[in-house]
Every structure is written in structure tokens, then in C-alpha cells.
Amino acid sequence: MIESLDFQTYEVFEPWKAFFSPSESVPIREAVGRHVSTTFKVYPPGTPLIIQGQVFQEYHLGLIEDAIKNNMTIIGIDEQSDPRVEVVRETKSPTRLDRFVIETQRAEAVTQEMANKIGDFFGSGFAALPYRQFALCELDPFVPLPPSLDFESWADSYDIQDIKRAEAARRELLTSAEKVAKSWYDYKDLDSIELPQKFHRWADQDLCRHAMEERFKDSGYVTTVCDKHTGKLRGFLHARICTLKKLFETEEWRNPWLFSYFNDPSKWDDPQRFYESMFRRFGMKLNEKTAIISAQILHPEAMGGDVFYSMMRSMALKATPEHAALPLICEIPQDGSAHILNIAATREIDFGILKNGHPLVYCQKLSDALFYFIAEKPHWRYAIKSQIRKQRRR
Amino acid sequence: MEQTLQLSRVADFANNIGQKCSELLILATKNPNDIATFSNKFVQLYSELVCFAEGSTSYSGYKLPTALGDGAISNINALLSELYQSRFACLSYGGSSGALLTLMTAVLPKLHPKRKVIIFDELSHQSLNGGLLFGRWQAVKIPRNFYSRHDTYSPLRLRDIQRCVEAVGAESIAACVIVNPSYCGFRNHSSCEQDIFSYLQSLNITLVNDGAWGPMATRSNAAGAELLSQCSDVNITSLHKRGITGSLGCMTTNREDIAKHWDVALDLGFRSTSPSFVSAMVAEHRLAQLLNGDWDEKIAQSTRGSNDLRRRINEIHEDIYIVTPEMVGADFGDPAHVLISTSSLPIDARLWGHILSDEYGIQVEKVTKKSMLLLMGTPISNDDLDFTVKSLQSSLASLLAKSNYKTAKGINHD
Question: Does A47 sit within 8 Å of B129, measured CB to CB?
Fold first, then answer.
């Protein structure tokens, strides 16, 4: 009978950093979880149990205690009677995450003040990178103000004969859009930018606040990222639970201009087409309850995998078993939070359902999608990553 | 050796040795307890021998060792190349440890801008640790399959390496350092080794084989296993593990770029500038013997000795056994490695090792809680084997007596 321990964990470490770093001597039991700065060998056999830079674990402690008990020679510890070991001195440099307070609360508990704050943040975030949804033109309302907007048609429609004038207006608008995208303007700053005729803001402050307020009435989770020192909101993630029908009506799925005063009902999506697609592709019924990642906006200061991961983890840890068993759907904006879910945890991605061309991802269970973020065991995470890699290759 | 030792002085040399040995013999007979005087005399004899031999040696051809250079040291390198069938070989005056340190510190960093090195549990040489430190590498450690029953590891598997490379990313991995054969002498079939080599080659990852524990995987006794120098980019080995000569660590490679960087490293101080020409002379002689078959009988004799010990294992105790390659999922076992498992006995094999070493003068290669490894690389006579078996038997019996152990048959081993 072959006995084997086949761990699929790979410890990556830098022996030289541990070797050249300042060290301190600590009692052996306190060394668990610390990086050692010396090599440990029990003699015999004399092969290193652990080398510089590796994390001292309970396993190593057990081996060393056993060796002490059996009066073996141990190279790397000071006194066998009161064993102490050299570990790398902890000079914990602050990480980016230390700047933020990341917490999740049930949507039902969000105050009016916080809802407004989130609404404003949502609108500002919409105009900034990576969404760039600052303004739209009635002539081409599905696209946010991009360099590709047909300015010539716009100039024609306003009968702007003077090429120089049309060009100046175009330049001014694009410059504003660029500034807004890069600088994360507050609402009062956004209001000061005058838009030409037939141009409209994508996200109006009042409409955003109202939409958020309505959405928070559904059961769900709101994860906020706040600057620890200033208390300013620097990101939020909202997941909610409701029926497919309500989602269609309250997300931007039916009406892409849900947050704007511009509206063109003739271009709204047909509910029947949407419901049929959802049933045909995912087997979802009109009144079926589902979970959705409704919004995820981050200020540039908080953008990055570390904050995102912590947000998702914070939310995953709050999810109730009842909600975790529900299916999950999520719209992925082309330039937005496509990383919110990974393809491995997602059963399907469909590009043909929403009129704006954004794909919808579907996952049979919310828990499948969130598992990655709460998987503490390295070999679980490794298995998930492998799966992701395989799926991507396909 | 014939070419380098000056013929005219051979008679004086032999006469001198004879005189000194006689003095030692008289001293040992008259006053066997005076170890201090005996030691002084012995050291004096040894020093004189070395000085004489050094003085009798023709220095003209002995340039410092290089992988590409010429001169008499290159003769040794050429012989090593022939033995291991590699394009380049270089004698290491720092032994296999020095060779590995040279490789990790001064050669590998020149081959790759990548910064990660895959290593395994049961680190090979301590110098690998030094190489990781001073080469400023990031280490990626793969746990190997550990057979806790015998306190030993299984040979490498391709899938372990593949999984790790996929998880970490081939683009950041410069090299993979493997210990093959394992410390306990176990090895996989050559096709497995070739698969590992091909896989890593396809990803531009240098495969370094620390083959110090299986130095005899040479042309003369490959025993069905392919030469390790053919299954890796660089192979480090140490022939002295098989009692062939005093110290004969070396590096072999088929890659010219590695050989070139090796020479640069040696010039930068990774060798002694005052090498022992006597050692070199002896190494040259022994290598020639290995290649022309003169040493075959000695190897066969040591293999016979280790096989006999395996056969007589039950004479030592009925509840201990030899760990065979099959027991750890290996295809081969080095004939010189005899791994004895004590897992069925209520003893700590490390204590057994201590007794053998301290009271019987038997050198134990490696001992853990549940197993003991004997390296039987040198030729052994029947009398020596009897002494070894008896020593193992009585030392174990004395240890078991303390634990009042009874076998399944109810026999008290005291």
C-alpha cells in the first residue's frame, strides 16, 4: 500500500530577501506563520526541513519538537531547552488595501444618505474611465460620446456651415469628455460643463439617486470601499435579488437611457424578445428569482485586483445560503467590470440578448461564482485557476 | 599518472612510504592506547606523502580546470565527457556542491532573464540553497510524493512539473532543479526522464540534474537507465560517492553556452587557484580505469556486496525489510543504495544510526525515524559483509531490548 501526500500547493519564496533582511529571535511556537531567516536541519538525516524565506508552519514545529523530544541535533535553533528561532523581522509596509475600509451590509440597511452618496458616485463613475459615459448625442444615442461620433451629421443637422465652428465645437466636447473620463468629476463640476444642443448627460444626479433608492429596496448586498482617512466613498458593489421581470424593467436592459433625461421609447427593447431569449438560453422564467451584480464602480484610486478581490470576498462572506442557491446573471459592459466573474465559474456568456450588445453572463448558482473568493485553500484556488485556463484555451 | 609521476623518484617514494608505515605499525603494536601519538605520526606521514607526490608531479600540463580549455586537467575533463557521453565536462575542485553553487550563482543567471527556479522537497545540496540566495532567485517549491512509511520520496513525475509550470507560468521560470536519482537512489524509467527534459526544453526552461547520489549512471553500468547527462541540460555528479577516488565532483553538459559561461565563472573565482595536483592525477588514473574496464570488477564486487546484504536482511531482524523501487513507485534503484525500513518496529531508526556510527564505526549515509540508508559504493569482502550484518544485528537487538519488543511470534528480541 503506497502512502502519499499529494499536495498541489506551490510555495514561491525568495531566500535571498529573507537572508539579507533584518531578523529577530522568537520562541519557536511564535515562529509559526513567519518567514524564517535561517535553515533548519534535524540531524540525522541533516537534510533541510525549511530554508530561508519559507513560512514556518505547524508541520515544521511538530518535526522540531519531535526531534527535541528525541534528543536529536537540530541545526538552526538556539537553545534546545528554550528553543528560539531566527525569523525575518516584520517591517510591515502598508499595502494599498490598508488605505481603505471595505465592508458589506444588507441593502435593506442602507440609509437614505448613503443611498444618495452611492447614487452620486454611480453617476460620476459612469462618466469616468473605463465607462466614459459622460454624454450622448440624439443622432447616435446608443454610443457614449466617443471620438467616433458622427460629428459631420451633427454639424449638418444644425446647419453649421462654418467648418471651423463645427470643428471647434467638436474639439471642445471631446476635450471635456476626456477630462471628465480621466479626472472623476463631481456632480457640481459636471454640471458646469455646457453641452451643445442635441447632446445629453448619460447619468443625471436625481435619476441616479432615485434608481439607487429603488434598487436598494430589493433584498441584496452593498459593499462599499471608503478611504480610511477622508471617509470618502471610493467604490461600491451592489448585488440584489429580484425577479427577471423586475430586473428587465429596472436595470438598463430595456431602456439604455435609464439614468438620462434623454429618452426614446421607440428604441427600447421588446420585453417579449428578452424573456423568450432568457428562457431559451438559460431556461429562466419571467417571475423566477435571481441574483444579479447590479453595479460595480471604482474610483481610479481603488481600481485594481486587490480591492476588487476584497470587495467580492467581503460580499461572498455575507451571502446567505438562501441567496447563494439562486442563479446569477450579470451584464458585462464592454469596457467595464468584465472581470467581475470568471468564465470558469460562469455557465454561459451570451452576447445576443441585450440590445446594447453587452453580454450577459449566467451562472447556475451564485455560490459557484463566489466560491473562488472565499477559497482559502491554495490548492482549491489553484484548481479553479487551472479550470479558468482550460476554459480560456477552448 | 605514468606520464606525470617522475620515474626516477618512484623508488625513493615507495621506500619512504614503507619506512613511515613500519613506524606506525610498531607504534600501534607497542602502545595501542596512545591515540594522540599515533595521530601525530599518521598526519606527518600523510603530509609527507602529499608533499612528495606534489613534488614529483610534472606541473607543466596542469592548467586550471575549465570546461573548454586544454592541458592535463582537460584530459580529466575529456575522460569525464567520455564517461558521461556529454559534449563538455568540467572537474570541480569544490566537489558537486561547488559545481552546483557555480551553476546557480554565475552560470544560470547569464542564461535567463527569468527569475524563478523550481525546486523540490528534500533539497539536494545545501549549496542549492546557497545558489538560490546568492543568485537572488525566487524559489518555487513543489512538494514531492512522500512515502511516510519509509520516510522517503518518490521519483519525479512529469505531471508534477507540468502542473507547477502551468500554475506559475513558464514565462517566468528559468530552471528546474531535480534530484535524480533521489537521495535514496530511486529513479524512474528513462522515458519518464526524457519526457520531463523534452517538456522543459520546449518551454526554454533549463533542466538541472543534481545527480550526486547516482554517480554511477555511466556508460559502463547504465543498467537500462539512460545516462543522466542525456536527460538534462546540466548534470552535476560526484564519482567519489562510489569510492572511486578522493573527490571527483563534476559538471557535464551538451550545451556550449553553458560551458562558456562556466569558464567565465571559474575565472571569476569559482575555483581554487591552488588545486591539488595529486587529486587530479589520481582522478585521471581512476577515470581511465573506469573507461577501459579495469574498475569493472570493483564495481561488480560492491554491487555483489550490497545485494548480499539485501538477501541477508532477515538475519538482522525479521521485522525489518529493504525498501524496493516498486514500494515507492520507482522503476530503478541504484545498486549501492540499501534503504532499510524499520517502520514495523517500535524504534526510532535515528537511534539505531547513532549506535552503528558511535559503537561499531559503520557510516550511515542517511537515517530518519523510520528508515536507514546505507551507501555501499566501495568493494566489500565477505568478512566485511559479515561484520556489517553482525553489527546491524547486535545494535538493533540492543535497541529493541530497551523497548522490550516482542515479534508477532512472541519472541523477545533482547
Answer: no
